[in-house]
Amino acid sequence: MSWARGISSGAAILWISTSFVATSLRTAREGITAVVVTDSRPSPPGLSLCSICMMKTLLILNEPAYGNERSYNGLRLALALSRIEGQEVRVFLMGDAVTCARTGQQTAEGYYNLERMIKGLGPKGVLVGCCGTCLEARGMATDPLVPPARPSNMAELAEWTTWADKVVTF
Q1: Is pLDDT above 70 for 159?
Q2: Please, what are the domains in the chain?
């Protein structure tokens, strides 16, 4: 069985075989067209339907927990994306945004609470990293963080950035 591989912007990727029926599918990735194998047999070597359909998004938050709504809106987007099948989401808090992961947040009745929002990401499998240098600069290095948030570093942010199909900053 021979498979032709190739990616070019706007062009279809075609796998030619007598035992598979393949159709092209434009994915959310701009300029990428992928192939969906519609036969019940295993996918071609190196091709995973899950890896084609899975969209990986990294959200980087920089703004403080309260005072403006940028971090709130970033977490709203993270929650919304995490509810969509085929989405994998990671959130990185840096600068004043590390205060979003502080435990024991007291907010007025009816006002959003970022602690609860971050807790809501855990059951959805969203990883949340907090810049360790930013935590130290705000005297939070030893403070407990709201799970799933955990201390992280720039090396992990760089890894997450290369992992992601899309990076959105708030």
Answers
A1: yes
A2: 1-47 (no CATH), 54-169 (3.40.1260.10)
CB 58 within 8 A of CB 170: no
Residue listed under structure tokens 């971050």: 118
**What is the structure's pLDDT at 77?**
98
Contact criterion met (CB below 8 Å) for 21 and 39: yes
In three-state secondary structure terms, 49 is helix
SS3 51: helix
- The conformation of residue 92, written as its DSSP 8-state character, comes to E
CB 102 within 8 A of CB 65: yes
Of the candidates 90, 168, 95, the one whose C-alpha atom is nearest the C-alpha of residue 136 is 95
- 57 and 165 in contact (C-beta within 8 Å)? yes
Token pair listed for 152: 């992280």
Instruction: Quote the CA–CA distance of 97 and 65 in Å, as a whole number.
Output: 6
* List of E strands, 94-158: 127-131, 149-152
User: If you average pLDDT over every residue of the chain, what do you get?
Assistant: 81
Q: The whole model's pTM is what?
A: 0.71
